[in-house]
Specification:
The protein has about 475 residues and is an alpha+beta fold. It is built from 13 helices and 18 strands. The structure holds 2-acetamido-2-deoxy-beta-D-glucopyranose (NAG) (2 copies). Pfam families: Creatinase_N, Peptidase_M24.
């Protein structure tokens, strides 16, 4: 707190009232006596206040908590408080991007898998898959005219491009050893051109490819098969370089939440927390992939958010689910926290503990060869036993990489097995709306979620955040 303002808060402002002026010439008057008492009282108050100000100047600690001032509730103030804590963690982001050799190695691995699957080529529109295999950004805007990346079973890289776009597309970032460009003119069918130029009999389409591409290829006589689980897992299983990036951005994201926890104050709005978090990511150059869900109290009963403008009151949790991107790889971390001077009821703390135990149960099942649905069920069991089964409304988690949500999905229907090198979120939650609150013996709704992305290793799960939460005060 700024010292000048603290003084103002401590001193009973202004000059003494005129009535308090001592009048020595009327000793017998009652009025003069009262005036004198007031004057002395005022002097005592001034001396005490002066002593307090001096003590505070020496100790740099506020003697009284004079309440939170408005300018302490702004995003700028939250950002600057959090930055003092966060700055020393910026080096977590000093991780190199994916190098050229790795792209070439990915193309070779894909070619091996295509040969094993008896498929001539893998075809994708600009998407996480083109970013993964050839560094072609998924932000390229799709149009009705197909622009397709083609990697064949001999690891030959080609692309199909509308003739009038060829120049622009040649200027995109792409990584390949050798490229072949297949151009189609406006008076031709792109699919017939592709079939004729390549002679492909059977191709595998990336899962994000639009149906019109599949239909067009089929019509041109090329058999189309969907992306196989084996080929999905090439991208789901992370390399050392990817793991280093994911660790960097996710550990930094957790430190950012921890720095906010130290600085959030009662009376702040959800939007204040969101904008200062955005600014904090921006300070270290990773603000462009920013997204956030920040929910106070009963707003968190909806996992993806409620109303705007809510301010934080005592007795409410703060749910922060936040992330950004480093070299296109995402972070996704959730903590349910309390500012150090705030408290919630023992029942709510118990719910936090239940979610933590559910997260532990999931975490301890994150071993290679464990079935995704079994991991999900393990965390659900804990919540069911505590009596909140129906309020754990979503799956346990999802893969994380170039996409914020990708394979494998940890839900009750997925029989895939976890593999060494996969990174999956572990994010159980309990959500009770105010309308449902009476059913669990409460008046007001709430939501609690904890989330860490976990790397699957031969020694079990490793949190990419560096550490799991210990309590709402030690997230
Ligand atoms: C991949 O593309 C990005 C820009 O989209 C570029 O900065 C980076 O250098 C490229 N990587 C390689 C290995 O070419
Ligand atoms: C997973 O299962 C496969 C095949 O069943 C086996 O070869 C592999 O050793 C197992 N991996 C681990 C880490 O248990």
């Amino acid at each position: 707190m700024d010292r000048e303002m603290e003084k103002e808060a401590l001193l009973p402002g202004g000059n003494p009232p005129p009535a308090a002026s001592p009048s020595r010439r009327a000793p017998g008057s009652v009025r003069a006596t009262i005036s004198r008492i007031f004057w002395w009282l005022f002097c005592v108050v001034r001396i005490v206040a002066l002593v307090l100000v001096v003590v505070q100047a020496i100790t740099h600690k506020p003697i009284f908590n004079a309440g939170t001032r408005r300018d302490e509730l702004t995003a700028a103030s939250l950002e600057s408080c959090a930055w003092d804590v966060l700055e020393s963690h910026a080096s977590l982001l000093s991780v190199p991007p994916i190098g050229r050799d790795e792209y070439i190695a990915r193309q070779a691995r894909l070619a091996d898998a295509l040969r094993a699957a008896g498929v001539d080529a893998f075809i994708a529109e600009p998407s996480a898959s083109t970013a993964y295999y050839a560094n072609i950004s998924y932000t390229f805007e799709l149009s009705e005219r197909p622009f397709l990346m083609i990697l064949d079973k001999d690891a030959q890289f080609s692309y199909l491009v509308p003739k009038f776009e060829a120049g622009r597309i040649a200027g995109l970032d792409m990584v390949y050893e050798d490229k072949k460009v297949i151009v189609w003119a406006e008076e031709e069918s792109p699919y017939e051109v592709l079939a004729k130029e390549t002679g492909f009999g059977k191709v595998m389409l990336d899962e994000h490819t639009r149906f019109m591409i599949a239909a067009g290829l089929q019509k041109a006589g090329v058999e189309v098969v969907p992306m196989s689980e084996t080929i999905q897992s090439l991208r789901a299983v992370k390399t050392e370089a990817e793991i280093a990036i994911l660790k960097g951005i996710n550990a930094f994201t957790l430190e950012l939440i921890r720095s906010l926890q130290k600085c959030i104050k009662l009376g702040m709005t959800q939007e204040t927390v969101v904008s200062s978090a955005h600014a904090l990511f921006g300070r270290v150059g990773v603000g462009s992939g920013f997204w956030a869900i920040v929910l106070f109290g009963d707003q968190a009963a909806y996992p993806h958010g409620g109303k705007h403008g809510k301010t934080l009151s005592d007795g409410e949790f703060v749910l922060i689910d936040i992330g950004s991107k480093l070299h296109d790889y995402g972070s996704d971390v959730t903590r349910t926290i309390l500012p150090s001077d705030a408290v919630v009821s023992d029942e709510l703390l118990g719910i936090w503990q239940t979610v933590h135990a559910a997260q532990s149960a999931g975490f301890h099942r994150m071993w290679p060869n464990e079935t995704c649905s079994v991991v999900d069920a393990g965390s659900r069991e804990v919540v069911k036993k505590a009596g909140y089964g129906p309020y754990y409304t979503h799956r346990l988690g999802h893969g994380l990489g170039l996409e914020m949500h990708e394979h494998p999905y940890l839900n009750g229907a997925n029989n895939e097995k976890l593999k060494v090198g996969e990174v999956v979120t572990n994010e159980p939650g309990i959500y009770v709306t105010t309308e449902q609150a009476a059913d669990v013996g409460r008046k007001v709704g709430f939501g609690v979620r904890l989330e860490d992305p976990i790397l699957v290793t031969e020694q079990g799960g490793v949190p990419m955040t560096g550490r799991r939460a210990k309590s709402p005060y030690d997230p």
